Amino acid sequence: MVDAPTLLPEGRPDDKTRLGYAMVATAATLFAVNGSVSKVVLGSGLSSLELAQIRNTCAAILFLAFLLVVAPSRLRVGRRELLFLIAFGLVGIALVQWLYFVAIENLPVGVALLIEFTAPLFVALFARFVYKEHIRRRIWVAVALCLTGLALVVELWAGVAFSTVGVTAAFGGALALTAYLLMAERERRHRDAASLSFYGFLVAALLWAVIQPLWEFPWDVLGENVSLQGNLSEYSAPVWALVSFIVVIGTMVTFSLLTGSLRHISATRASIVATLEPVVATVVAWAWLGETFGPTQLIGGGIVIAGIFVAQSAR
Q1: pLDDT digit string (tens) for 275-310?
Q2: pTM
Q3: pLDDT digits (tens, 9 = 90+) for 34-64
Q4: Label partner for 52 (CA 20 to 30 A): which of 7, 201, 222, 290?
Q5: Residue at 290 is within a domain
Q6: Pairing of the two strands 225-227 and 236-238
Q7: Which pLDDT score, from 0 to 100, does residue 266 have?
Q8: What is the model's pLDDT at position 252?
Q9: Which of these, 315, 292, 284, lies nearest to 33 by C-alpha position?
Q10: Residue 128 C-alpha from the chain's centroid
Q11: Is 106 helix (H, G, I), strand (E, B) or coil?
């Protein structure tokens, strides 16, 4: 992994560094579109749990097929890893995705992502007080910015302008995403990203299969057509096609782009570029779903994103 961009003699990043940034930006954009696609699917009759179940199950199958073809040896698991992989799958995959779907089902997509993207702030705080890492003092600036921005976004003085369930799920998703980032950061020294993701999705899929056996899944819904809602409400699409987009484009392709980008730029730089996601998601949700925000919420969103940038640079 590269800690800083490779520079040309004139001080400009080289082609590989620019490629890394482009890959992260593309992944963030696809993730942003995936939020609106997921919201449409949730309007088809599938619950947030059912959408998380089919996404996790299909992703596990696709990752397994990939690893069996490319590197079956990566599927080996030591006994010491077992408990970690179970915890990673339950918290880092299952909870993150389910809470995200609950959040976007009850909140505008942009608001849900803004709240969840405060995870880097919690990562830095955890590193400071639990890992005892040296964190720059600017972390407290980041805390102030994020809290101020979020208060403006949810209109805290008015008793929270959005669904309490949605806001709670989004904050829960931020904490679960924090756990995911910390666990993935710890385990990347011992296991490659593809096999770690496979076992995470596998554990999540098994959890949902216990809660709701696959034979009870409403498979008939996948064959129905659903309105694309908002400004595209006159059009419709098969639910199975939208779910396929979520699994293939919103999971597999985006994962590959993010993983590949780390060969060219550092994880910190990649995560900063990834903050494009809530910005693009807000624009996509406005253009597609007709979700709008007042000037106070737009200002608050900008303050939150500034806080996320500061938090990333503090560690």
Answers
A1: 788 888 888 999 999 988 788 888 988 998 898 888
A2: 0.86
A3: 999 999 999 999 999 999 999 999 999 999 9
A4: 290
A5: yes
A6: antiparallel
A7: 62
A8: 79
A9: 284
A10: 23
A11: helix
Residue 299 half-sphere exposure toward CB, CA atoms < 13 A? 7
pLDDT-derived band at 158, boundaries 50, 70, 90:
low
CA distance 54 to 7: 43
Q: Is residue 197 part of a domain?
A: yes
CA distance linking residue 20 with residue 303, whole number of Å: 26
Range of the domain at 281: 18-314
**CA 146 to CA 276: how far, in whole Å?**
16
Residue 63 CB-density burial (10 A; 0-12 exposed, 13-18 middle, 19+ buried): buried
Backbone CA torsion sign across 119, 55, 247, 236: negative
Is 131 a domain residue?
Answer: yes
List, for residues 230-272, the tens digit of each pLDDT value: 999 999 999 999 999 999 999 878 877 876 776 777 656 666 7
Domain total in the chain: 1
Q: Which token pair is 312?
A: 């990333």
Assess if residue 1 is contained within a domain.
Answer: no
On the question of pLDDT at 6 being above 60, the answer is: no
Q: What is the C-alpha radius of gyration for the chain, rounded to an integer number of angstroms?
A: 20
- Identify which of 54, 51, 49, 53 has the alpha carbon closest to the alpha carbon of residue 35: 51
